[in-house]
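User: Hi! I'm working on a homework problem where we have to compare a predicted structure to a textbook description. Could you give me the structure for the chain below?
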Amino acid sequence: MTNIKKDENSVYGIHAVQALLLQNPEKIRVLYLDINRQDKRFREISHLAQQHHIPIEKIEKNPIKHLGENQNTQGVIAVCGKSRNIDLDIDLPELLLSLTKPPLLLILDGVQDPHNLGACLRSANVAGANAVIIPKDRAAPLTATARKVASGAAEFTPVITVTNLAQTLRYLKDQGIWIYGLAGEAEKNIYTENFKHPTAFVLGAEEEGLRRLTREHCDALLSIPMNGQIESLNVSVAAGICLFEAVRQRI
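Assistant: Happy to help. Predicted structure tokens:
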């Protein structure tokens, strides 16, 4: 039996691995496939790997599950080389300069659950956001779990990790981007604002919300109107609502 070591740079799940093969196949060192699966999706993944001369190893399901942090890997794991760290000083300015339409960014302040990060990334991609920005410390990194939940969005929407979130917010404001923080107690709500100009939404962790310093760097604090008995939304749902309100206004 092949001995698979748990790898922090692994990507698992059918959608995530297929997106990686389509967008960044050069990252993959080896592809592990469950020997018991022979369905159409697996044949497509195997064909893509062969096109790019990526080694394929067939393996039993249990070790694949172990590599996937005991999550449902759907029987497919791509083990990648070490990821390049995205550099704020280089990548964010380049990204903003490359845009032909007003930027739409999602910034997460202290979201520590990788499932929530993956879901936010998926919402950002579907809404057409240009990037997701996360802090380096006290926040979930882009792990294999987050990539799987994102269902391939991690290969298309840049995730920029920054050391100093407050400094990043100041930089974005200097570039003419309006910073809107989500806060449940805010008097203004997202349906009263204009998001046709360059916009960044900042969302905090579900329990703690935005940190004080983050709030101070926002141009405005906004809320999402709540009509039920529950006082808050999952952060990925809130992100989707905000992003698609901007999309609606820009149509």
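For your comparison, note the following. The longest strand covers residues 28-34. Residues 88-250 form a domain with the Alpha/beta knot fold (CATH 3.40.1280.10). Good luck with the assignment!
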